[in-house]
Amino acid sequence: MRSVEELSTRSRIRDAAVSRFARDGFRVPLRVIAADAGVSPALVIHHFGSKDGLRAACDEHVLEHSLMLKSGVVENTDPALLRSLLGNLRVFDEPVAYLLRALLDGGEAARSILERTVAAVETYLEAGVASGVIRPSRDPAGRARYLTYMSLGLLVTAFLAGPRTDGDDDDGAASDEGDPYGHVTELLASLTLPHLEVMTHGLIADPELLHTAEDWAATATPTTPNRRTRRDP
Fold it and tell me: Which regions of the protein are recorded as binding DNA (predicted)?
């Protein structure tokens, strides 16, 4: 069992790594992260085993924190909570930057983040359905995957549409000056109202498009295991 001091040191290293990875990418040397945390590289290895182990711990921490906030929103409609989140969106700069780095980096780590996010989103949507905040779905797993892809795609699109200059230096340090990710959360803030409008009221008034797609899905060769038959709302 780890002591309080060990847990504090581990958390300090992890938090320093999240900040550095978010700012400079995943090629940053371990010694730089160790210096940020005020420890030796050997102590980083002692706590996490390797740089890959450190990144896995960072992935876990960022995902847990991000999904915890989303879960709180869908489990209740307390206006104070939403106002607090909207008034402090800049606190999301770092976790958003980290997730963007991870997604754009690609590979198995990105796929793992994606699949874990889908599973977590399905779980908190179920909690929202139970609390009455979220409408039930004819396909909970499919809806969770769609919303995850849409949300993460929005982050990537917002990032690519912004003023960030291109490229990292060879040593893993970002070549950009200032905050290259702040515009992402600023754009997300500007899209909050249209996002909530679409999520609350929907978009298509005539249900016939949905019914036609359901009829097609009931007879088409399935490409996923989540085929559903038509059920009128």
Answer: 29-48
**Are 94 and 18 contacting, i.e. CB atoms less than 8 angstroms apart?**
yes
Angle between helix 182-190 and 93-105 (nearest 10): 110
Give how far Cα 97 sits from Cα of 47, 87, 139, 174, Å.
24, 19, 31, 12
Quick one: tokens of 209? Answer: 């498009």
Query: Which structure tokens are listed for 19?
Result: 């900040």
Domains and CATH numbers, the chain: 55-202 (1.10.357.10), 205-233 (no CATH)
- The pLDDT assigned to 47 comes to 95
- DSSP state letter for 197: H
Provide the whole-model pTM.
0.73
Other C-beta atoms closer than 10 Å to the C-beta of 94 total 19
| The dihedral sign for the CA sequence 40, 45, 47, 52 | positive
Query: Per-residue pLDDT for 168 more than 50?
Result: no
Q: Write out the H or E segment, with its range, that includes residue 86.
A: helix 79-87
Q: Burial level of 98, CB count in 10 A (0-12/13-18/19+)?
A: buried
What interhelical angle do 140-160 and 107-131 show, nearest 10? Answer: 120
Residue 16 has a pLDDT of 96
